[in-house]
């Protein structure tokens, strides 16, 4: 068991896209709140896994994000969500795709960490959620509102390093507004929407899911990590989109706990916190946080 070195860091995101001016404050505030929850867990010696799940649950409750309560509707007007969580210590992975009517898809994904399958979709994911007694989705006007207001979407995600040097990543999304029924995006696909490995770090992405999956952008980002600082590793991975097309944003914590954020979208709502900061900082563009990024 490694000794605690007291360093911890966390990044949350609330989606890479073009965010209208009037929504930016809400997006930054939501990310701030989620980062504060994760920071409390990590500063008390909690695990990276608990921190990323806790932060993601906060974001799944917030109507301004396209995840959980605020999820956008598919082509039939129904809500189908994807979520995943990964443990960098054991490389355990839990993902759900096209799951319906649960409040916290990330909690269902977390429960799957203890099982053999790494991904359950549709009916099977819902059956698993029922066995767990997962809370049903909150209902209200949020989904309709966000379907109208989101172009690309506001997937949420979180990466963290805890005081023992363990990493975790999580993501949750309603996907793309008007998507085909049954469509599963990049979010629960390892190496695409997320990855965590104590030997290199943790990464999570948001943006055009099919482009992220085709470019395996989480894997590409971590491939750069041994040679590059986090920001440069993200920039190198995002350059694959020049060939594929599409837009994305990524958050990354490397082995040393250094933080990187990058995006080729106009905005990216994000928040960072670390034991060497006096509190979380939130923004809707990576450049606003450059003091804390490497
Ligand atoms: N990547 C998500 C998806 O394609 C959407 C998003 O990040 O906004 O499902």
Could you walk me through the main structural features you see in this protein, from its secondary elements to its overall organization?
The protein has 294 residues and is α+β, with helices and mostly antiparallel strands. The chain is built from nine helices and twelve strands. A hairpin with a 6-residue loop joins strand 11 and strand 12. Helix 1 packs antiparallel against helix 2, helix 2 runs antiparallel to helix 3 and helix 7 packs across helix 8. The site of aspartic acid (ASP) has 15 residues, from strand 8 and helix 6.
A few lines on this structure:
The chain is an alpha+beta fold and 294 residues long. Helices cover 31% and strands 25% of the residues. The strands form two sheets. The chain has an eight-stranded mixed beta sheet with strand order 4-3-2-6-5-1-11-12. Strands 7-8-9-10 form a four-stranded antiparallel beta sheet.
